[in-house]
Design goal:
Structural class: alpha/beta
Strand content: 15-25%
Radius of gyration: 18 Å
Order of helices and strands: EHEHHHHHEEHEEHEHHHEH
Largest sheet: 8 strands, mixed
Shape: globular
């Protein structure tokens, strides 16, 4: 029976997920596969490379670096998270991503993006590092309006959370029968409809498929939450989520709030560890 780890996005809220992941890695908990969306992909790749602490370390180190995340970056590069600096310079030079460890780990690594032209989810699997891995992670993490679409092959790709925010059903279709799902919103969270459609329609008018998907996102997201609850009741899904709204927002430069969010993830994982181990041992 294949076990999977499903990671929601949420930009800097993903530090909660990083805290969860570090505890699981410290206890040598392995999965047959991982699927991440947006920050879930950007941070989740460190599970396959086994780099405990790396996500928190580089976010704290570059919290106030305008090349990493800033309005200056948005105006000069087209991305509020600097595309070249955050997704290439940082992992390849400044805080190296362990490619050899990534390749040694047999765990499947999947990520989700959205086709900007059709609004449909696009999934990509990496068993070993390829040169385009960082391109796909950038695409999965590129939030509309504050990021550019990312061309890969004949597609224009953007934030995977628009089309499939919590890809549990996708992973089940790939043969992962028992899954741990890490959410970055509390259990009672419900996504609301867009309140600024005029702004989205004006800024993304070249991508009507993307606009349509974004306007339906709350319906898709809430349906996925209902499905997760059903699967949890059925006993084949284990959910880890914060018990309250996280102190950090999607974008933050506050190191104290970053660490607090990370520590909340650690605390939850440590508290739930006995139940999680029992779930995975079945």
């Amino acid at each position: 029976m294949k076990t999977g780890l499903v990671l929601e996005g949420g930009a800097m809220r993903g530090l909660f997920t990083a805290g969860v992941m570090d505890v699981l890695m410290e206890h040598h908990i392995t999965f047959d596969g991982l699927v991440g969306v947006s920050a879930g992909a950007c941070f989740g790749c460190n599970y396959k490379s086994g780099q405990v602490g790396r996500v928190l370390r580089y976010n704290l180190r570059y919290a106030h670096d305008p090349r990493y995340c800033s309005l200056w970056s948005l105006f000069t590069t087209g991305g509020i998270f600097g595309p070249r600096f955050a997704y290439y310079t940082l992992p390849l030079q400044l805080d190296p991503f362990d490619i050899e460890a990534f390749d040694r780990n047999p765990m499947e690594f999947h990520l989700v993006t959205t086709d900007a032209c059709t609004g449909e989810a696009v999934y990509q699997r990496f068993d070993r590092y390829r040169e385009d891995l960082l391109d796909w992670i950038l695409a999965s993490s590129s939030m509309p309006v504050v990021s550019k679409v990312v061309p890969i092959g004949d597609r224009l790709l953007i934030d995977g959370g628009i089309a499939d925010s919590i890809p549990l059903q996708y992973f089940q279709q790939q043969g992962f029968e028992r899954n741990v799902v890490v959410l970055t919103q509390p259990a009672d969270y419900q996504k609301k409809p867009l309140s600024y459609r005029w702004f989205i329609r004006r800024n993304l008018r070249r991508y009507p498929g993307l606009i349509a998907a974004w306007e339906r996102r709350h319906e898709m997201y809430n349906a996925e939450l209902r499905y997760i609850a059903q699967q949890q009741e059925a006993g084949n899904t284990f959910v880890l989520c914060p018990d309250r709204v996280l102190p950090v927002g999607r974008i933050s430069h506050n190191r104290r709030l970053m660490r607090e969010t990370y520590d909340l993830g650690r605390s939850l994982a440590e508290a739930q560890l006995p139940r999680l181990l029992q779930f995975l041992s079945h």
